[in-house]
Amino acid sequence: MNRFQRERRFWLKKASLLAGAGATSTFTGLSAIDAFAQDQDDYRALVCVFLYGGNDSFNMFVPRSNEPYELYAQARRNLAVPQSSLIGVSPTASDGSQYGFHPAAPELADLFNGGKLAVVGNVGPLVVPTSREDYQANRVPLPPRLFSHNDQQDFWQSLQSAAPQPSGWAGRVADAMQAQYISGELSMNISMVGSNLMQTGATSIPYNLSPGGVVHPKMSSLLTGYGRLERRQKAIAAITSNDTGHLLANHYRNTMRRSLVVGEELGRVLDSNIEIESNFPATDLGAAMGMVARMISHRNTLGLRRQIFFVGFGGWDTHGDQTARHPALLRSLSQSLGAFYSATESLGVASKVTTFTAADFGRTLTTNGDGTDHGWGGHQIALGGAVKGNAIYGQMPEIRIEGPQDSGRGRLIPTTSVDQYAATLARWYGLPESNMSDVFPNLGNFNVANIGFV
Predict the structure, then answer these.
(1) 248: closest CA among 11, 4, 23?
(2) Higher pLDDT pick, 355 / 246
(3) Lowest model confidence (mean pLDDT) among 141-155, 273-287, 403-417, 439-453
(4) What pTM did the predictor assign?
(5) Could you give the CA distance from residue 255 to residue 280 in angstroms, rounded to a whole number?
(6) pLDDT per position as a tens digit, 182-230
(7) Which of 222, 198, 127, 134 lies closest to 417 in space, CA to CA?
(8) Gap between the Cα atoms of 342 and 333, Å rounded
(9) 3-class secondary structure per residue, the chain
(10) Crossing angle (nearest 10°) for helices 284-297 and 322-346
(11) For residue 72, which of 319, 403, 414 has the smallest C-alpha distance?
């Protein structure tokens, strides 16, 4: 494929994302699902909660054994969570220490102790296994532009070093599986935060929802009074029906038309009432997770056996006022994920839905006086009925300045790669082994391809 072809495909996909649509190649409608002859019990969903800005996970999950805690407290100084306030969990990690959750996250601790949540230690972008010596001597390939928000978000979501990254790993999963598991127009990938790289594939793109449901063309009062609504509807009809003679414009037109049709039918499905026994917090994340639960509740009506949801949760770039901001963020995360797990239980799909966190990067062990700066590795969590919880996976780092994982300035080098973490999730989801190397291009560089937490 030459440069013109690559750029053409890249911009065609961007036009599709602007329209907010996700579709297969032939429109069949949500109502024509082959009488849903599929096995309704064969359902699985992945739910990614992306913590934009970079979570200080070293304060979310903290060593509470005396000697490791002392090293932690020396590194964290004024940011250290008091040892006595940690919510203890019983398993011993790879470093021989016992750990505890931040006091603002009791729901996460309860899920962990109940065997429904696991911690994966020190995950981050890697091309190959990297030691402190490797990094300092610059003798191994590294992810591009480390410690940059946008670049590390792109690598987490695409696992590719080239720019612009043409696809994300969830998009590539959908490319490989959508024909087998999706019969209608609605995409396997559903985004609650608009366009994102992770869910963009070569042939599949995400369908965009909001916490309130289907995103319709804006019809504000300035545009709907005095006959404006009718004129606007006619204009939209003209845009979506006329052949412009221009390839990009026609692609945008077709995508917009599919988006409107799918949105109308999906809106009708979501308007039907299914009671979900869970109390979601009155926060942006709570509303988004509530909508994900509603979508899952309608999985049989929609004829869907595989779904990947992407939920964005911002505000984690805690350079300042961290002692106030970070606990509030953890509280919202803990309450929302606790309510969401309860919802999956009430819907009878707890073992069929796996929720996991991701983030730009971890934060520095060092304090800047009022917060933390951009780091590298960080802990992630996975929860669901299929998760082998009450356990800590991967190699936990030594929380020590100038320790064996410190690349400098308290930025800990990951001991588990994003490829390993994501591939473990995708294998549970049903991605064939024959597709693993295409979806996770760096996975073959690591000895362990399945971390085993699900």
Answers:
(1) 11
(2) 355
(3) 273-287
(4) 0.87
(5) 33
(6) 877 789 999 999 989 999 999 888 999 999 888 765 544 445 555 666 7
(7) 127
(8) 14
(9) CCHHHHHHHHHHHHHHHHHCCCCCCCCCCCCCCHHHCCCCCCCEEEEEEEECCCCCHHHHEEECCHHHHHHHHHHHHHHCCCHHHCEEEEEECCCCCEEEECCCCHHHHHHHHCCCEEEEEEEECCCCCCCHHHHHHCCCCCCCCCCCHHHHHHHHHHCCCCCCCCCCHHHHHHHHHHHHHECCCCCCEEECCCCCCCCCCCCCCCEEEECCEECCCCCCHHHHCCCHHHHHHHHHHHHCCCCCCCHHHHHHHHHHHHHHHHHHHHHHHHHCCCCCCCCCCCCHHHHHHHHHHHHHHCHHHHCECEEEEEEEECCCCCCCCHHHHHHHHHHHHHHHHHHHHHHHHHCCCHHHEEEEEEECCCECCCCCCCCCCECCCEEEEEECCCCCCCEEECCCCCCCCCCCCECCCCCECCCEEHHHHHHHHHHHHCCCHHHHHHHCCCHHHCCCCCCCCC
(10) 20
(11) 403
Amino acid found at 442: N
Q: How far apart are CA 393 and CA 428, in angstroms?
A: 16
**pLDDT exceeds 60 at position 1:** no
Comparing C-alpha atoms, which of 116, 188, 114 is closest to residue 344? Answer: 116
C-alpha 216/C-alpha 208 separation (Å) is: 10
Name residue, tokens 């009074």. Answer: 225
Q: Could you give the CA distance from residue 152 to residue 125 in angstroms, rounded to a whole number?
A: 7
φ and ψ of 138, to 5 deg:
55, 45
**What are 150's two structure tokens?**
């946008």
Quick one: pLDDT band at residue 295, thresholds 50, 70, 90?
A: very high
CB 178, CB 188: distance < 8 Å: yes
Distance of CA 329 to the CA centre of its chain: 16
Q: What is the pLDDT confidence band of residue 12, given thresholds at 50, 70 and 90?
A: very low
What is d(CA 428, CA 184) in angstroms, rounded to the nearest whole number?
Answer: 24
Judged on CB neighbours under 10 Å (0-12, 13-18, 19+), 222 is exposed
3-state secondary structure string across 128-189? CCCCHHHHHHCCCCCCCCCCCHHHHHHHHHHCCCCCCCCCCHHHHHHHHHHHHHECCCCCCE
At residue 318, φ and ψ (nearest 5 deg) are -90, 65
With tokens 């509030």, the residue in question is: 328
* In the predicted structure, residue 381 carries a pLDDT above the cut 80: yes
Token look-up 């998009």 returns: 171
Residue with tokens 């963009």: 200
Please state, rounded to an integer, the average pLDDT across all residues of the chain. Answer: 87
